[in-house]
Amino acid sequence: MAPIIAMIAITKSFLGHYLGAREGFNGMVIKSLRGKGKSIEINKLNKITALFMLVTTWIVATLNPSILGMIETLGGPIIAMILFLMPMYAIQKVPAMRKYSGHVSNVFVVLMGLIAISAIFYSLFS
C-alpha cells in the first residue's frame, strides 16, 4: 500500500508544480505577445510550454547541479538586497520615508549591502 501512496503523492506533486509553472509561463508569453500586438492559440502555446519544460528538465537532470549550492550562492545576495538595499531605495523613492534620507548610516547600509551582494560575483569568478 505504501508504494501506491508514494506514487500518488509524487504524481500530485508533479502536477501541482507543472500546472503552476505552465500557467505562469503561458501568462508571461501571452503578456509579451500582447505587448507586441500579437496573439497565440492556447493549444499551440500549451504544446510549446510542454516542450520547453521537457527540454529544460532534461538539461537540468543531465547537468545535475547542486541545489544546496545554488541556494547558498543565490540566497545570501537576495536576502542582502531585501534587507539592505530595498529599504534604502524606499527611503529615496517613498515620500513618507523621505525624512530618513540624508543620514550617514544610509551610506553605510548600502555599502554593507553591496559587499554582501558581491559574494555572488566572487563565487562566480573564483
TrEMBL record:
Record-linked InterPro entries: Amino_acid_transport_2
The entry's keywords: Cell inner membrane, Cell membrane, Membrane, Transmembrane, Transmembrane helix, Transport
Phosphoprotein as UniProt keyword: no
Entry GO terms, CC: plasma membrane
Localization of this protein: Cell inner membrane
TM region(s), chain numbering: 48-68, 74-91, 103-125
Any Gene Ontology biological process: amino acid transmembrane transport
Mode of membrane association: Multi-pass membrane protein
Metal-binding keyword on record: no
Protein name: Serine transporter
Taxonomic source organism: Raoultella terrigena
Gene name, Swiss-Prot/TrEMBL: sdaC_1
